Amino acid sequence: MTVMQDVKSTDACVAGINCCSNTANSETSIDKSSVCMNPSSTSNVLYKPSNYDNWESNFNLCKQIDIEFENLKYIVRKFNFHERKFVTKEILHGINGAFRAGELTAIMGPSGSGKSTLLNVMTGFRATGVTGTICINGDPISTNSPSFRELSCYIHQDDLLRPLMTIGETMMLAAHLKLGFSTSKEYKQNLIKHILALLGLEHRYHVFAGKLSGGQKKRLAIALELISNPPVLFLDEPTTGLDSSSCSQCVSLLKKLASLGHTIVCTIHQPSALIFEMFDKLYTVVDGSCIYQGPVRELVPFLEGQDLVCPSYHNPADFLLEVAVGEHDRDLVKLINAANKKYHEDADNQQINVQRLLSRIKSKDACSKIAGNLKRFPNVMSKLTSFDYVKPAADEVALEEVKSLNASVGTREKLDDKDCDACPTGRGKINGRRSTAYKALHTEQASFIMQYFLLLNRIFICARRNYFLLLARLMSHIVIGLVFGYLYMNVGDKATTVLGNYVYLYGTILLLVYTGKMAVVLT
């Protein structure tokens, strides 16, 4: 079932993931051409240029992605030297869950519970030993496939930034690599200004990355990924090592990006009460199992239903971690079963609500109510078009009615003619029955040769600005030259001195080669 979602801005378009079923492995590969950028634009770049007063509209997605996983397991196999045999250990124990578009989801749990492992599995960094089903908008997909990686990004906990490059230079290098040279430099500069304005880094444009604070480095790492505007962002503990103010700014930024339609999933260890309330959904992992998943506001009632009363003066996040480590003498198996039961009940209730809407959509009054509540249920339109038993003709009429009523109620989820063409009931094809032509995400990235010269230029810039390294290399050449000159002075060219000349030439060549390599290694 492919879920089509409407978007929030008239600059965006509704598009679907054009999936091709693979009967051999029951997986679906995502074609990167299935995500369109702007149907009315002739360029294949991601954002539509606009004035700076409306820069947030540049980050609206024309395709929102929901991720669901079921019975997900991760097993590692290592050789035990003491027992002289291979042993297996299960890290993730058949967990279920979903990450929705437009929501900021936090994966929380004590140290060693499997938070980062789950994130690595979802991003495809852990592929061997993974079993279970991972679906993108209802279609099974392999997360380590290149097509999925083009639709997602993974921001690690450690920021690998070049300290001797400015923010502007770092962003421009990333723009050249991701957008290629078919996009004009002026457009890239405007795009970079838009991104830095969104992240509050426009006043640090000419500052070296090494002089940024911890929070600014986190925002710069996010800015580098926003150049390609991926629908899905995974972050590994983005608030680690930051003070409370920087943590609040970082999570607020992620919240803003989620409101623009991104699917944002991040791991977090122990947030404060203020930061904890900023998250939309919570996914708690303990020893590779889930003990709670759902809205943050429903955490306390869920715990109360399990005879775990959180004191009013207590941070719910801290109380949940105390329960996870066993401080309140609660059987975690019961919590795991309760969490799984809640997950399936929520899924069934959502299915029932959609079926009720389907039974009423032929009524214009019902369409008016649905259109008036689109802001409350942003995924309704996508689910209404995903059922096979809906007649296309009736569905198209209903969509046209909802579209006309949408304009009157003034909600942000407006459908235009291009949107209807991209829906499953239009002239497209979903799940192997129809096909819709979409513009490529990034059809022309930097070629291998251009990547080589871009990275070579980065090395030259960093080496030129590292004055200490340049001085050290110069002094080492002078000292070694004096030593070699003193040792091999007046050696001559006789046959008895051939070995000495050979050693001299060999040492000189090694010196030139390895000192040249050290510039690359150190920068």
UniProtKB/TrEMBL annotation:
The keyword Transmembrane helix applies. InterPro entries: AAA+_ATPase (IPR003593), ABC2_TM (IPR013525), ABC_transporter-like_ATP-bd (IPR003439), ABC_transporter-like_CS (IPR017871), ABCG_dom (IPR043926), ABCG_transporters (IPR050352), P-loop_NTPase (IPR027417). It holds the Pfam family ABC2_membrane. Signal peptide: none annotated. It is found in: Membrane. Keywords: ATP-binding, Membrane, Nucleotide-binding, Transmembrane, Transmembrane helix, Transport. Residues 76-312 form the ABC transporter domain. The chain crosses the membrane at residues 467-489, 501-522. One of its GO terms (cellular component) is plasma membrane. GO terms for molecular function: ABC-type transporter activity; ATP binding; ATP hydrolysis activity. Belongs to the ABC transporter superfamily. ABCG family. Eye pigment precursor importer (TC 3.A.1.204) subfamily. This is ATP-binding cassette sub-family G member 1. The gene is ABCG1_29.
